[in-house]
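Recap for those who missed Tuesday's class. We walked through two folding examples back to back. For each one, the amino acid string is listed first and its predicted structure tokens come directly after. Nothing is annotated here on purpose, so try labeling regions yourself before you check the end of the notes.
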Amino acid sequence: MKVEQIIATLGAEIICGEDMLQDDIRAACGSDLMSDVLAFVEGHTVLLTGMTNPHVVRTCDMVDIRCIVFVRGKKPTDEIVEMAREAGMCILCSPHTLYTSCGLLYQAGLRGHEKRC
């Protein structure tokens, strides 16, 4: 799925990373636990989260996630947006809850990783 399809599916607002609209996203992860993101997520994944702090961007950078969706209409601070720009990431804001946002993407054909402990 392309980033632009994620935007359309979620009715999301793009905050930064306008040049990444044609990037391929192969899986999605919905989590507020960055330790789970580190343990279970691989690149070419979109992270959906309700956490809006710099740790999210740092975690995504470590596992090569290039697209973050902040849910429930949350907006990142200027500091977070600048960190994401420097890391070459796209940030989107979804008006939906985490559960609904994940469900909409799943319904549109984007699956999660099935990696287990």
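Example two. Treat it independently of the first, because the proteins are unrelated.
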Amino acid sequence: MSTNEKPISIADAISPVPVEPTGNVEAWHLEKIGQRHKAADEGHFVAAADVQAVIRKFVPDE
């Protein structure tokens, strides 16, 4: 560190840097929702066994 640089606090050093979205996130989200609705209207659904497998992965049997 050179002598003309201002030292930063520990809190500033470990804080995440705010990141601005690079595109229109809301428009992307609405587009994805529209695609999912269209797929559902066409009858494209996940099999019940696949849903159960994902649930079992995160919720163990008691």
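Answers for example two:
The first helix runs from residue 10 to 14.
Residues 11-58 form one domain.
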